[in-house]
Write a structure and sequence with these properties.
elongated, Structural Genomics Hypothetical 15.5 Kd Protein In mrcA-pckA Intergenic Region, Chain A, 3 domains, disordered N terminus, Pseudouridine synthase, alpha+beta, 10-stranded mixed sheet, 336 residues, 4-stranded antiparallel sheet
Length: 336
């Protein structure tokens, strides 16, 4: 059964606020932090200054500092991460798999089954609760992954770092790849899936693809085949956009739903033979990994303080690795 918790993950673009201003032709010189503070209700001057320190205030296509003087006809844009939601979050002592940590950020390897942020039906036991306990402070999210998707997640420790990193995700300059096991033998060695994503008109709890662009938000997923197993394929996916359930909805759209994805049709045996032995093999795989076969494998970004690119890679978790191994053995057995 699909519940509201399955769609608690908001579109990543909704984690950020984007403001755009053009100065009047009669504008007198004025510090940009004052200029923006006067026009952005509910935003503190300190928050605006942090955005400038993070390089997130752009004037005429160039980043500027807080003391920049706004001039006539200047074109100004600013990207800010949304402030944390106004709800009580209590620290919870939940184990974390921390891959990397410094004064500005940490990278966590999230287990499948853990919700990232509190929401409908998930008021405790989330990654945010665990991070609050570990950091003894509210964690600052930069992006999200679905409850039943495993893998790497980046978290900021201060507002300047969050704003600097958020801009990379907003502008799609951060690199992310996922490994997915999908139904069917994908014909091409690599390809791109393009199609707007929005809530399904038939079922509001899931997302659907609208290829004509008449509804939803632009979404692009690039993929390449890693290994073929006749009836399923292991693919690497690279996100150009960060829409809700993007990979899951896109692969269902091209009729290759993710293996074991109950929400998007991946729990049906959609490819293969009718033999009982094969059916039992697939159902055994479902029991080992009762969630979509999707893992956030790599993560790359420019560090907010060091200004160097950092790249992280993670192994497939045990459940997905075991299922991929079973398909590898199945392919060997079927070719003899």
């Amino acid at each position: 059964m699909v519940t509201e918790e399955d769609i608690d993950i908001a579109d990543e673009q909704e984690l950020y606020e984007h403001f755009h201003f053009t100065a009047d032709k009669g504008q007198t010189p004025l510090r940009i932090d004052k200029f923006l503070f006067d026009r952005m209700s509910g935003t503190s001057r300190n928050r605006i200054q942090n955005a400038a320190a993070a390089g997130s205030i752009i004037v005429n296509d160039s980043p500027v500092k807080s003391n920049y003087k706004v001039r006539p006809n200047d074109v100004i844009s600013i990207v800010l991460p949304h402030p944390p939601r106004d709800k009580e979050i209590y620290p919870e002592n939940i184990p974390l798999d921390i891959v990397y940590e410094d004064d500005d950020l940490l990278v966590v390897n999230k287990a499948a089954g853990m919700v990232v942020h509190p929401g409908f039906g998930n008021f405790t036991g989330t990654l945010v609760h665990a991070l609050y306990y570990y950091l003894n402070a509210a964690p600052l999210l930069v992006h999200r992954i679905d409850k039943n998707t495993s893998g790497l997640l980046l978290v900021a420790k201060n507002e300047i770092a969050q704003t600097f990193l958020a801009k990379q995700f907003y502008e799609h300059t951060a690199d992310r790849t996922y490994y997915a096991l999908v139904w069917g033998d994908i014909e091409e060695p690599e390809g791109t899936i393009t199609g707007n994503i929005d809530r399904s008109a038939k079922d509001r709890k899931i997302m659907a693809v609208y290829p004509d662009g008449d509804k939803g938000k632009h979404a692009v997923t690039h993929y390449k085949v890693i290994e073929r197993f006749d009836y399923v394929t292991l693919v690497e996916c690279r996100l150009e956009t960060g829409r809700t359930h993007q990979i899951r909805a896109h692969f269902r759209y091209i009729k290759h739903p993710l293996f074991a994805d109950e929400v998007y049709g991946g729990m049906e045996i959609v490819k293969g033979t009718v033999f009982t032995r094969y059916k039992q093999f697939v159902e055994n795989c479902f029991s080992i990994m009762p969630r979509q076969a999707l893992h956030a494998k790599t993560l790359g970004f420019i560090h907010p303080a060091k200004k160097e690119r950092m790249t992280f890679d993670s192994e497939l978790p045990q459940d997905m690795a075991e299922v991929v191994g079973k398909w590898q053995n199945q392919k060997k057995w079927s070719t003899h």
